[in-house]
Automatic annotation (TrEMBL):
Described purpose of this protein according to its UniProt entry: Subunits I and II form the functional core of the enzyme complex. Electrons originating in cytochrome c are transferred via heme a and Cu(A) to the binuclear center formed by heme a3 and Cu(B).
GO molecular function: copper ion binding; cytochrome-c oxidase activity; heme binding; oxidoreductase activity
Domain of life: Bacteria
Native species: Entotheonella factor
GO cellular component annotations of the record: membrane
EC number: 7.1.1.9
Domain Cytochrome c intervals: 207-297
Transmembrane segments: 6-29, 50-68
Gene Ontology BP annotations: ATP synthesis coupled electron transport
UniProt-recorded name of the protein: cytochrome-c oxidase
Length: 297
């Protein structure tokens, strides 16, 4: 669809370019300086209404030939195909991370959006603070998240894999640190992921992670939720399945013990301006909290 519009535009523009460039070359050659011609005077022309009107008409016609299919495709492309089987998701932009939820599946996650391949995904997008822009270049164009407005976007991943994205509207000091990834699975793997997300993690069995859970309940519950525990904060990302995520801090760091420790020691050095405070935890507390967070698969 877009390809046809592109080709129409290329053909029209190429024809106009060849015609004007050809006329220019012809004029340069035809009226070049020749011995004996220097004194010749050409008659001065003062406008030619017929020629001007017909040129304007031709240009208008050419622009219409480009505009009509463009506008048609623009509107057609914003209509998602196969709405009946579409997966519906909600995207909420925050300074500086992404909340993704799947209302029909009762799943909520952050910064890593999992989708099935070959299925239309219809997203509603809104923001909790300032304007952000959801952009995963290989899947769809940009769509802004605007305060007090709900926008819509659809896309479909045709190949399994990871599609990288980034906030594309300046939204404060950590705008560049507001990354995301879309993980596309085949149907079976997606179902398995959903199943895992719907399951509440067991209480940790090993002593270190148990100690970490106590640290978590003491310091983290005002902002973060972990299903199946008293933690139900709504300020930061839901951490129920944090251990199953590939990254932390809105896609900035791979999810590893050393990076979790780095984040807990000084969030501001990783993501300047982040609402995540430096909790002033001891080395031992960070180690046990890391063990607990990794246990949350
Ligand atoms: Cu959010 Cu830039």
């Amino acid at each position: 669809m877009q390809h046809e519009v592109f080709m129409v535009t290329v053909v029209v523009c190429t024809a106009v370019f060849l015609l004007t460039a050809g006329l220019l070359v012809y004029a340069i050659w035809r009226y070049r300086a020749r011995p004996g011609h220097m004194e010749a005077t050409w008659p001065h022309a003062h406008g030619n209404p017929k020629l001007e009107v017909s040129l304007i008409a031709v240009v208008t016609l050419l622009l219409l030939i480009i505009a009509v299919p463009n506008i048609r495709v623009l509107f057609a492309a914003s209509e998602p195909p196969d709405l009946d089987h579409a997966l519906r998701i909600e995207v909420v932009g925050k300074q500086w991370w992404w909340k993704f939820s799947y209302p029909s599946l009762e799943v909520e996650t952050a910064n890593e959006l999992h989708v099935p391949v070959g299925r239309t995904v219809v997203a509603t997008l809104r923001t909790d603070d300032v304007i952000h822009s959801f952009w995963v270049p290989k899947l769809a164009g940009k769509m802004d998240l605007i305060p007090n407005k709900i926008n819509h976007l659809w896309f479909q991943a045709d190949e399994p894999g990871i599609y990288y994205g980034q906030c594309a509207e300046f939204c404060g000091p950590s705008h560049a640190n507001m990354r995301l990834r879309v993980v596309a699975h085949d149907e079976a793997a997606f179902a398995a992921w959903v199943n895992a997300q719907q399951t509440v993690a067991q209480a940790p069995a090993d002593a270190l992670a148990q100690e970490g859970e106590r640290v978590f309940q003491q310091h983290c519950t005002a902002c973060h939720a972990v299903a199946g525990t008293p933690a139900n904060g709504k300020v930061g990302p839901d951490l129920t399945h944090f251990g199953s995520r590939q990254t932390l801090a809105a896609g900035l760091l791979p999810n590893s013990p050393s990076n979790i420790a780095r984040w807990l020691q000084n969030p501001q050095s990783v993501k300047p301006g982040s609402l995540m405070p430096n909790l002033g935890l001891s080395e031992a507390e960070i180690t046990s909290l890391t063990a607990y967070l990794q246990h949350l698969k």
